[in-house]
Amino acid sequence: MSSREELLRLLEPPAERWVLPGADELARGYGTGLPADYLWLMETYGPGEVSDYLGILPPVRAAEIGVVPGVCPGAAEAEEGVEGIEPEYLVHGGLFVWGCNPDGDSAFWSTVGAPDDWKVVVFRRHHGPYEPAWTRYDCGVVEFLARTFQGRHPDNPFSGTDLWRNESPSFARS
To answer: 51: number of CA atoms within 13 Å, CB side?
Structure first.
């Protein structure tokens, strides 16, 4: 079963599809395309919250980037425990944020390579003293979500347990 099929099995999408900004508009604003699995996620679910815990940000038009909530480029901050993370995380635009939660965790893509090769990177605000604040997952956003719901990552990627091994997550569009 594909990651998309798995996510559809686990997480019921809203009845109405969400309308994405055009591909040219996104490329103009972000300077690149966005991963196909994320665009599918947006077309299928749209922006919103998963189980009242993980906010998934929308792609926004060029003039709205950094002005309204949405996917935006960023960088790891030195005070956030960056030891051991890849150097490209430290430059503005090395990470694109696509999700956040009330625990202060953030979900990003590492923008290395072509958009469909971007991997998920999570900053976990609350972590143990011997655990990394930053963790890279070798998958895209759809597979990352399905694996989180099924508990198929080596560890829970987030500070809270709302999504971890949650076989009946919910979605509410924002």
So the answer is: 16
